[in-house]
Every structure is written in structure tokens, then in C-alpha cells.
Amino acid sequence: MRVYERSQGIGTRNAYVQDLIAVSRRLLERGYAVLFVPHEVSLSDTGSKDDRLLCALLEAAVGDDRAKAFLDPAPAAEMKAVIGKTACVIGSRFHALVAALSQGIPCMALSWSHKYRELLKPFGLEKYAVESVDGVGGGAVISLFDEFIEGVPALKAGVESALPDVRRLAAETFDLTAEALQRR
User: Fold this and answer.
1) N or C: lower Cβ tally within 10 Å for the chain?
2) Coil, strand, or helix at residue 47?
């Protein structure tokens, strides 16, 4: 919803939604199945829009039985397991990208913040982070996506080779944090 809210247009006329529809159709043409996964879900009737709205909209707009929206609330561990079975992730939710990268899955981010590019950088994927201010909507995203999807096998190898260093750095960060907290 964060990228949708920052993009021009409403419903299927929204630039971000149009990009996701085009990317989904490209994936289907290449024989992939597509799963639209919500990460922000409002479990009470607060009136706020959550990601399920977009997932259902995309499923209907793509109109192919191989493109499904995962609309039932599920625990984070279950969602991570689903993500771990994918060939790649094209996402706009930071935690979905973290879940994918931590399992060696290459990612492309359609984002609203520089933090997505920084997340992808240690894996050599920073060029596949497109911020909404970069012009989400139109041929630029599709041509970058085509390059990304062609390179998925090599990108997967790169992500997997970067994981040990990323995990080591994360562990060191937690150790330093624990030391600082214990000194207080």
C-alpha cells in the first residue's frame, strides 16, 4: 500500500499496479506461477486499507488461474516458508525481501524508500531496487524486470555466496548491541 499511495492513479489505473500487472503477465508467459502475498493486514475492521486489497485487485486484473492472491492471515513463519519456495521475489515490503534474501532468493524491489536499495546492495542486487520517485510506471520497470528474470539463476548464486558474510555481520552487530546493553 505504501508504494500504491505514492503512485499516480487509482485502482488498475495506478502506475504501480500497472507495473505489477505487466510483471505478472511476463512471469506467466515464462511459465512461472505468481503469488500475491500481503504483508500488512488489518485483522479488525478499522477501515484502513491493507495489502489484501491490492493482492485481490492484482489477482482479478491479471485474470489467470496461475496468478493467485494469498488472502488468509498466516503466521510469519508460514509466510517465510512460502517465500522460501519461490524462484524469485518482486516485492515492495521490506520484510518480504528480507525473508527472501535470508533464504537465498533473488529479489527485485519496487519501493518507496532508499532503504530497499541499501538492503539489496550487499547481495549485488541494488540496481534492481526501483524507487517510486525513479518513475515507477512504464517501460523502465519492465525492461529492468526482463533483465532481472533472465539473470535469476546467476543472481541466486550471488545471493547465496553473499549470505555467509551478511549473516556474520548481523551476528557481530547483535553481539556489539548485547555488549553495550550489558555495560549499562
Assistant:
1) C
2) coil
Q: What does the alpha-carbon distance between residue 184 and residue 94 come to, in Å, rounded to a whole number?
A: 31
pTM above 0.90, yes or no: no
* Count of all residues that appear for the chain in the document: 184
Helix (H, G, I), strand (E, B) or coil at 30: coil
89 and 107 Cβ atoms separated by less than 8 Å: yes
C-alpha cell at 4: 500504491
Name the grid cell of 59. 489477482
Q: How many structural domains comprise the chain?
A: 1
Query: Residue written as cell 502475498?
Result: 37
The domain that contains 45 carries what CATH number? 3.40.50.2000
In this predicted model, what pLDDT tens digit does every residue of 27-38 receive, in sequence order?
999 999 999 998
Amino acid in the structure at residue 135: G
What distances in angstroms separate CA 156 from CA 39, 113, 114, 160, 184, one per listed residue? 23, 24, 22, 6, 42
- Give the domain range for residue 101: 2-183
pLDDT at 98: 96
Residue 49 has pLDDT above 90, yes or no: no
Tell me what percent of the chain is helix, strand and coil, each rounded to the nearest 5.
60, 10, 30
Backbone torsions φ then ψ of 8, nearest 5 degrees: -75, 145
CA distance 124 to 117: 10
